[in-house]
Every structure is written in C-alpha cells, then in structure tokens.
Amino acid sequence: MNEELIRDRTLAIQETVDRAAARSGRSGSDVVVLPVTKGHPPGVLVAVAAAGFGAIGENRVTEAEAKLAEIGRRGLRWRMVGHLQRNKARRAIDVFDAIESVDSLRLARRLHSEAEKADRASVSILAQVNAGGEAQKNGLDPAETVDAVGAMLDLGRVRVEGLMTMAPFTSDETVLRRTFRVARECLARCQAELTGFDGHTLSMGMSNDFEFAVEEGSTEVRLGTVLLGERPEV
Ligand SMILES: *Cc1c(COP(=O)(O)O)cnc(C)c1O
Q1: For a substitution probing ligand 1, which of 33, 61, 80, 81 has the most ligand atoms within 8 Å of its CB?
Q2: Which residues line ligand 1 (CB under 6 A)?
Q3: Domain residues of the chain, as ranges?
Q4: Confidence of residue 1 (pLDDT cuts 50, 70, 90)
Q5: Per-residue confidence at 96, pLDDT binned at 50, 70, 90?
Q6: What CATH number should be reported for the domain whose range is 3-227?
Q7: Dist CA 58 CA 79 (whole Å)
Q8: Strands of 20-142, DSSP E
C-alpha cells in the first residue's frame, strides 16, 4: 500500500462522497474521510499521512500503542473507533486524540476521571449509538441517548463532539438508511434539547455503506478496505 495508490483511491472515493453529499443538498467538503488503518502495518499510516490525511482510526489500544512506538504521531490525529474496555481508558487517552466509540456513560465517567488524574484538560469523544438496535452491538440505546449525552456533558473533562454509529452488516439499503436516520435524529435531538451541546460530528459509514451514510447526513466516513485494501493481518 503506497502513497500513490492511496491518492488515486482517495480521488475516486471523494467523487462518490461529493455526489452523495450533493444528493442530500450538501457539499462533499462537509464530509471527512477517516482512514481506518487497523490491521495494517505501521508503514500504511506513514503512507496515509504522506497522502495528505490529517487523522487515522485504530480500533485496539495495544495495536495503536505498538504502531505509535514504531513511527510516532506523524502529524496525525489518532482516533479510536473500536470498543474500549474501561480498564484501558488511561492507556487510550495517552495514545488517542479522540475516542469515537464511547458506548456507555460508565466509560465516559472513567475517561473523565482518568483525564483528571492525567491532568489532561479534556478528552474529545463521540457517543456511540446502537442505532440499528442490534443485541450484539455496543452503544447507547437511541431512546436513552439524549439523557446519556446530557450526563456526559456534565463531566468536565470529556468534550462530546457528536455521535458515532455502526450499521448492521447487511447490504439491505432499507435497513442501512433507517439506521443512519435514527443516528441523525439522535444528534438533532441532542442539539435541540441539550443546552451547552455543540457537537456536530456524525461519524457513520464504512466501506460497504458509506454512500448511503453520506446521503443520510454523515459528516465522517470511516474507511478501511475501500481505501487501503484488505487487511493483511490475521
Ligand atoms: C474496521 C472498522 C471500520 C472500517 O471498516 P471497512 O469495512 O474496512 O471500511 C470502520 N469503523 C469501525 C468502527 C471499524 O472497526
């Protein structure tokens, strides 16, 4: 995976994003592409940075720590996109600039207290919503999202940038769109009902569904396979 191939794929992806954004009355520049580098060797992060990206997504603390030790930050913002166990909260805030996968109020509280102990002013987070309502998926129940995000706002050291969701693994357009709409409505309700909430990031859309996600209001698509190819690791 080299810089040139990443640039070529980025152009094609950006065209798809632009068209999908236009169909929803927006501009492609309203949507950020977050390369998800999990499962790829450190050299891929170097190539991603060289191709002009400002951030990457990783889904495991241990894997991210190893990559960071090998290549350094590379001017990238490191964003965690995978489930985070509370006992790894401290290590996560040492590695990551933001945690997109805050799937419970308990985890947000833990991040707050670890930030306090680490004397870090704040940790940027997205609240993860289980917008598809799947039993096996992590995330806040849509019905409890406004209350949970409201409680997160009261924690002084977490900064809620917005919401994140993962759609069910399906190619069923109806299911995907419904899921993305639920997440968008949750964000709209947070914005309308919570004073002091200024989050506007809606992280949704992966390789197989990002076109629908953008049409339904995504402001950040998290792309692995379509941008970087199949993950070589196990
Ligand atoms: C792996 C992963 C992605 C990217 O997946 P692709 O299907 O390869 O684009 C996005 N978001 C999360 C949370 C992931 O774990």
Answers
A1: 81
A2: 36, 38, 59, 81-82, 166, 206-208, 222-226
A3: 3-227
A4: confident
A5: very high
A6: 3.20.20.10
A7: 6
A8: 32-35, 55-58, 77-80, 98-102, 123-129
Distance CA 24, CA 125 (A): 26
- The residue type found at 216 is E
Structure tokens at 174: 């109806």
Quote the tokens at residue 105.
Answer: 């109020």
pLDDT digits (tens, 9 = 90+) for 101-128: 999 999 999 999 999 999 999 999 999 9
Closest ligand 1 atom to residue 231 Cα is 8
Cα–Cα distance for residue pair 219/52, rounded to 1 Å:
19
Q: Write the pLDDT tens digit of every residue in 152-209.
A: 999 999 999 999 999 999 999 999 999 999 999 999 999 999 999 999 999 999 999 9
Backbone angles phi, psi at 143, to 5 degrees: -70, -20
